[in-house]
Amino acid sequence: MPLDAQEFPSALPIAASVAWQGLRGVGWLRSLSDEKLALLAAQCRWHRLQPGQMLHGPYTDRRTYVLVGGLLSLGSCSASGRTMILGHLEPGFFFGAFAPPQPSQHVLVQVHAVQESLVASLSSEEMEALIMSEILVMRAMVQHLGEMTGVLARRLVRQGTLSVRGRLHALLLELAEHAGIADDQALLAPAPRQSDLALMLGTSREEVAREMARLARLGLLRREGRNLRICRVDGLRLLLDEVR
Length: 244
Hints:
Blueprint: H1 14-23, H2 34-43, E1 45-49, E2 54-55, E3 64-69, E4 72-77, E5 83-89, E6 94-96, E7 109-113, E8 117-122, H3 124-133, H4 135-161, H5 164-179, E9 186-188, H6 194-201, H7 205-217, E10 221-224, E11 227-230, H8 233-243
């Protein structure tokens, strides 16, 4: 049974004494005891973000960041000003660190809060000490990295081999699977913004809007207030197979 926050030394910073319990939901830290999580929380630098707020530091300060609660988006902007959303991070994801010593050698990545979010960060020295002393944490992190690599590989293949229409179908299916499919339906709540979908697909909002309207006419999508229902997931899969 988890220990109450007040059972830990009062010398812990207030944010850490409360937020350590959030670390219990981070999958790759599951092997740590409550006492070790409390000590880790005391080491962390905590960041509370409001929707739309940028998190400064990741990929430039060589700290490791962990999303404890909320939802973050990763985006990049080219020298020409073109913006693209690289993906979204959910609780448990770690990011940042491992940045090249020369900033000019890597793509500028910006992290924004989609929802109110809580993020913890550790210095590279603290992170190294953690994974060197906790073999189960190291193993879980390696597994997590492998899963992330698989997701990125699938997205890269889609980007290079599918039309915009096919990429949109694949993205909607990915969102449906994440939201949960029941009776061949999935509810995306709230509905993803067409502008965000366009940024993730590297296309225009107008092109996304046209295809979304076509899918609605086919009976595959339906707006329900602020939400979007995928009415026939298998039908969407069939369309994706046709464009592959």
